[in-house]
Write a structure and sequence with these properties.
single chain; mainly beta; four-stranded antiparallel beta sheet; three-stranded antiparallel beta sheet; 44% strand
């Protein structure tokens, strides 16, 4: 029985000590009063696995990204630009073409409506000076084209 345990532990030891290893562009160790953590930044090596159900990139670090294929079409329809973003006091909304019955809606990230109004001119100024620093959403709606939403960062 002792021989079996010795052989089993010798065979299992290499499996237990395996971890992901790779050369990365940067990284280090952060140390504090409660301990330390080792981190790496970047990924220079991955492999692509494809099958009939889809594909995946296997690697050390993987980003998670949402992609809306209709976003570029919506922005083209609105012909919108917004500046400055990040903003401090005012945001200027500029539209190349104003759709019929266009309105803007300015929300916080909890979905609370903070500002709204019609878009009557090619340039619309929004006063955001009274709002706290953070992220906000500007939604533009019209019955004739799809809704467009832009994230605004307030300093």
């Amino acid at each position: 029985m002792k021989h079996f345990l010795l052989i089993a532990s010798c065979c299992a030891l290499p499996l237990l000590s395996y971890s992901q290893q790779n050369a990365v562009p940067s990284g280090g160790t952060a140390t504090g009063s409660n301990g330390s953590v080792t981190y790496s930044i970047g990924q220079i090596d991955y492999s692509n696995a494809s099958g009939t159900d889809g594909n995946t990139n296997e690697g050390l670090q993987q980003p998670f990204e949402f992609f809306d294929p209709d976003a570029s079409i919506t922005e083209i329809n609105w012909g919108v630009s917004l500046f400055p973003n990040p903003a401090e006091d005012q945001v200027e909304l500029h539209l190349d073409n104003i759709p019929n019955e266009a309105h803007y809606f300015f929300y916080d990230l909890n979905g609370k409506l903070l500002l709204s109004g019609p878009i009557l001119n090619n340039e619309t100024l929004l006063d955001v000076s009274s709002y706290a620093a953070g992220n906000y959403l500007l939604e533009m709606r019209s019955p004739t084209i799809p809704t467009s939403t832009i994230q605004i960062i307030k300093h």
